[in-house]
Structures are given as C-alpha cells and as structure tokens.
Amino acid sequence: MKFFFILVGFSFLQSCSQPSLYQSKHYVFGTIVDISIYGEKEEKAEEAAKVVLEEFTRLHNSLHAWKKSDLTNLNESISKNKPYRKASSELIEIIKNARELEVTSNHLFNPAIGELINYWGFHQDEFTPIHPNESKIKSLVERSPSLSQLHISGTTIKSSNPYVKIDLGGYAKGYALDRASKIIREHHIKNALINIGGNIMAIGQHGSKPWRVGIQDPRGAQAIAKVDLPDGWAIGTSGDYQRYFINDGKRYCHLINPLTGYPVEGIYSVTVLIEPSQSAGTLSDVLSKPLFISKKENRRDMAKKLGIYHYLIIEEKHISMTKTMADKIQFLNPLTQKNNQIEITL
Question: Quick one: CA dihedral 318, 322, 325, 330, positive or negative?
C-alpha cells in the first residue's frame, strides 16, 4: 500500500491510481485540507468539494483569532468592556458548546486564554523565539479568563472579565469537520474522507475496505502507525511538532497550560479516536488538548471524565494507550515497540 503524507499529524494511506478516487487539496485554517471522495462521478465530487471548501473559507474568515473576523470583533468589544450586539447564532452556539467543554475538562481546554497564546507569539503565521518573562506570565494567568465569564442574551455577548480573549484554534477545525460531513451527506455522497491538518472524519469507506489513515511519528517524517477509520468516526491529534519554536535548546509548543501559563513539556503527541456522533469532528479536535495538558498521573481520570475510550500518547521512549486503541492500531516499524516502553491502560 502506498503512503501519501500530509505532515500535520496524519497521513492518508490509499493508492491514488484508482480513477474513482477524487482528491482536492487546499490551504485553509493555516494548514493543508484534503477532501477525498470515492466512487462518484468527477462532476458530482467536484461540486461537493467546492461547497465544502467554501464553507471552510467562511469559517476561517469568521473564526480567525488574530486577523479581522467576527471573533476579533467580539474580542475587541470585550477588551473595551462593551457588549457585542451582533453575534451570529452560530458563534453563540459555538461559544456555549466550548464553554461546556471547558468546564468538563477542568478548564484545561480554555479558549479564553488568547492573551497568553498571543504573548507566546502564536498569534502569527511564523513564530519568533522569545525569552519568557515570569512576572508577565504570572500576571496573565492571574487574570483568570474563562468562557464562563461570558454572558449571552439574544444576540448580545458581554463579559465580566475584560481580559477574556477567545481563541478557537483548538475547536474550529473539528467543528469544520462536522460541517463538512453534513454537506457531503446532503450531496448524497456515500464515501469520503475529510482531512483538516490531521483532524480527519470518515464517511462510508474506500471501496470494500474502511478508510485507512496513518498516525504521524512526532519525531520523524513518516507515519508511526496506521488505523482503519469506519463510517462516522473521527481522529485527531495534539502534538508539539508543528507549531513551536526552540530557544536556548528548549522546545516551546503552542499547547499552553492555562493553569501555569507555560507551554506543555515532556509529551510529544496525543491521538484520540472518536466514535460517531453529530459532534465527532469537534470532539476529535478538542479532547486531545486536555489529555495533552493533564499531569501524567491524572490522564486516565481525565480521559474517563471526557469519555475518551481510544487514545494514544507518545512521549520519549514511552507509548501509552487504551486497550481498545491497541486493538485498532498497527505500528509500522517493529523497532517502535522494541525501542519504547509500551503501556496499555484499561
């Protein structure tokens, strides 16, 4: 089987020689988007992919965290301690859902920490290494921004904390997957795979077999494992190997612990498999974050609290996963298991 890599966490492991496989690649959400449709006439597949891409572009323009968007307009109103009166019903529902997920994750998933993310330099396309200022970081953490401080009435949103700055970077791609799945099914397409920078949703299957994706090696250029993705399942990863900078030999990734204000260290990647639901895409994006940020001794309890039954965690010379995940994945290099301590959790 041939490998086709999109270096964002996952690889699409299918042969592209078959004429009935339509693929369309674009750059949205700051990453590569791959729309694959199997078993349809090219005109039908192309039309559906076009509508999906238009939806991705709309969401990108609406939810961007630092370029002019509906979200930046809301953040500007919050910073001025003014109510934002023009919130769309979609933005309100996203905020309400993200707020519930923040609470459930013990605030480890916290989209209100945009000021911290900006301080670390991740509100830009290219990252400039910084020397962290301990007192500045402490000050940002002590402001305690949370989506729970937002008050919604009709189309108006206001905040009791002017230091709330919303960043939906850990939510938007997954939400876009759910929107894409809806569009694809509305176009009566039975088999498709949507990949947004490593967050992937499967619809139907590839011929007589499930869609197969590869899990990126966080310290290599190849896939470390492969997994079949049945209809309606989604997969997502959080890793320290895409958005990061190195300063004085130390790696600082974009995944920041809201409780400390610092990027998480010592963990390479977390991959979660999410079973079919109306929000499987969203959950594939969100749920890997609190698991990534959790202390090692708390991960199992956090996974249980979040309803994560299939996860894979890669650290230096250590790989841990649930038994259900171990039953589903296959490591591609025998040396992976030989060179790493493998831990299977219940």
Answer: positive
